[in-house]
Sequence to fold (827 residues):
Amino acid sequence: MANPSAVCNGHLHHQKQNNLLKSGTSKKNGITKGIKKNGVSNGSLSKKAFIEHFEQAPMYVAVLTFVGFGVGTIFGYLRDFMRAWGLEKRNVATEREQQKDFVPLYQDFENFYTRNLYMRIRDNWNRPICSVPGPQFDLMERVTDDYNWTFRFTGRTIKNVINMGSYNYLGFAETDADALKTVAKELQKYGTGICSTRQEMGNLDKHVELEKLVARFLGVEDAMVFGMGFATNSMNIPALVGKGCLILSDELNHTSLVLGARLSGATIRIFKHNNIQSLESLLRDAIIYGQPRSRRAWRKIIILVEGIYSMEGSIVRLPEIVSLKRKYKAYLYLDEAHSIGAVGATGRGVVEYFGMNPDDVDVLMGTFTKSFGAAGGYIAGKKDLVDFLRTHSHSAVYATSMCPPVAEQIIRAMKCLMGLDGTTQGLQRVQKLGKNTRYFRRRLHEMGFIIYGNDDSPVVPLLLFMPGKIGAFARRMLEKNIGVVVVGFPATPITESRARFCVSAAHTREMLDTVLNALDELGDFLQLKYSRYSKSAHPELYEETRFELED
Amino acid sequence: SLQEKEELIEEWQPEPLVPPVSKDHPSLNYNIVSGPPAHKIIVNGKECINFASFNFLGLLDNEKVKNAAQASLKKYGVGTCGPRGFYGTFDVHLELEERLAKFMRTEEAIIYSYGFATIASAIPAYSKRGDIMFVDEAACFAIQKGLQASRSNIKLFKHNDMAYLERLLKEQETEDQKNPRKARVTRRFIVVEGLYMNTGDICPLPELIKLKYKYKVRIFLEESLSFGVLGEHGRGITEHFGVNIDDIDLISANMENSLASIGGFCCGRSFVIDHQ
Fold:
């Protein structure tokens, strides 16, 4: 969603990194950002420029998007009408004969969008693959005979499709037998499952080892791991806050955070995405006016933010939020699902990216699914916090713990990242990811697409806007042997459908070049290059102000 | 005024983030299990016979299972790196769903990655605010979380007490007659477990089916503990009582007990499962 303060004014100053800036702030697209002077980053203060782009589309694009949805809706009504009158076949499964007089399970209108609009382009999601989800994978070929109502597998596989969709940031989703030999050994020794909850017989020595390693990796006192990333949020937020507390959450937080906040029973207030003024005004109002009806003081205030937002690619403004938190005595809960392993000089997440102390954040949460190629989540912080969670978390009491081979995969990946296995492979992966990200984003900007998000985030959303282009884009990319992910309503606002690329450390330069060339062609064919501020690839030409006139 | 506001902000003291936990809280120090959690396990250094894990069929140690897992490790690696919608669906997922559906003799099945989340996500998918759910008192925690997330009206009935349930249903019917238009759109569900985790007894399924047709409520059956345990072939409580499986609208189970793995599944008719 576009930052509301990003008003497109006529010019854009794309300042390169080695320009010296006289003033402390600069205006880009109407967003005022504090740009710090460039210098050698020695870890204490962030000296990089924090550049984020949220360009708005030209007006005609928004109009055409609405027109597209309008046409789809009209056709939807027409077809529903025809189906109700039997003029067209009904392909949806129906209720049992004996239960026809029960109250209907679904309202017809709820599924209107699903039936009429989503069904048309349904073949772009849930694509089954049959190999490891690395930088390239094999897709199973699927055809449909009746316009996406049912699918049929032809039995052939499309080999070596370049994978721009899986969250494989550091490339740990691999089947290299050498790398996985510890995992195979653990599998042989421990078996596949646990069959018990954490507090009963489910706490293996592997878990203890893993928790110590996670705490060491992040630089905090203690950590606790859980079996599933999504469930980590939804089961621990209710343990930390209850009635009488206030939760301030970002507009674009993930469903797991929203679910956890709702289940806790606390009051929820939403602040605009990454907008510090909005957050500050909410904090002041909360402290001054107290709870809504009784005017008593709030018991606790917690701020829920994410490290990298998965649909936008933007990074949270951590230094400002931490200073706000200190001033108003609130608590900070940071969900680093996408950013752990992906940003930061050695892969330790946004805390390292900004050069801050991990003690500043009260609750550090993250998942192992994305950068580490395994499953599960963790919560880390001070020892008191983790002790409390061990006793009071819903997950520890009722849900099964992580299974041993998965824990071993995380241990191996983390040791590789920290360099404890004796190689520099971990650091190389992090640096390769950074290089790939910057190269990819720079080339896309030069080509003229609208990209959202921070220049350093490996999640790259490319805006498509119009509903018709969603299907066309995904299908044509598949024809060129590139697998992409497209998202539309309801995961994104209705006018901002996008294609989301996840750059990985396992992608080679050639793979990225293939993708970029394909994007170039497709962008021209589908008219996707909406950006009015394309960077030229050869800016040196502007320096020529004088030239010799031939007499 | 501004001065007062600043003073209020200075004075406000929040509670500590977490209340301190005493050092000898009973659940604080977990028992550390070294080695595989099979029938004989080593807890805190002592070897014991394991009566505490839900390893009903003993599949934790099975060689065939381990070999199959090793083969898939070589082929697929460890994680899926993505949700189902975005290249996270593997051919083995689809095969598992087909096999489960065939085994349970239903039309379709769908799998989840975490057992707790299975029932806690399945309930809110069907029952929204304003719908009515009749739930047994001894329902397990995951069901309670699902109910909380769905925000429907919940009516508890005493554990395994069919007369109480019938009374509640009759009350609901008289209410419906007062307001027929609303009654036509509120959905009604009964949520029961096959084998209750909290008390360990079985629910009386045939009587529930009779109540279902009499009062027009749908049944959601949670078979986490009874899958693989009850019934001649392990198909659960429907086989145990000889009830037609199509009578149950949705069966949800988690695979972490008898099947010695992680995850859960829901199965039923296509009409019900497609929605998920």
Summary: The first strand of chain B starts at residue 33 and ends at 34. Chain B has ten helices and eleven strands. The CA atoms of residues 39 and 93 of chain B lie 29 Å apart. Chain B touches chain A through 93 residues (CB under 8 Å).
